[in-house]
Known about the structure:
The protein is mostly helical. Helix content is 73%, strand content 0%.
Amino acid sequence: xxxxxxxxxxxxxxxxxxxxALTGERAAADDLVQDTLERAWNKLHLWRDGSDxxxxxxxxxxxxxxxxxxxxxxxxxxxLDGDAMDLQESVPQSDALEIRDLDKALRGLPEEQRxxxxxxxxxxxxxxxxxxxxxxxxxxxxxxxxxxxERLRRSMTGLPEAATLRVVR
Length: 169
């Protein structure tokens, strides 16, 4: 048990970072991490020793987040009041503006693209680990990542959205 607790402790900063990126709010992120750790502790008997603990924890967090979104679909509101002030104090103004624009662009991505992009880019999970965490095929991870990167690039450079294909009958 002590070894498990030690291993989990090393992943808390990564869990917090991913939760913050998912929720966009410090308090909600902390709650999500707390719920994740509580669920992991309660489901410790399901973890297979020798398997990737990081991927297991991210899977738990992802499932909890999806459940929360489904429960509170009508209440989706992100407040950045306190968080925006923290950014301005800790980084130069131009960097703060770029971070704000990136955050806005990430929020504009469909949730499934944002999750894949964050797990691979921010948390440095492999395609296989991301697929396992999200419960989707590796090919789906790759296509969501590609589409998410393209949408993010277009948003950050001010390019218009790519034309969508129409069904012609």
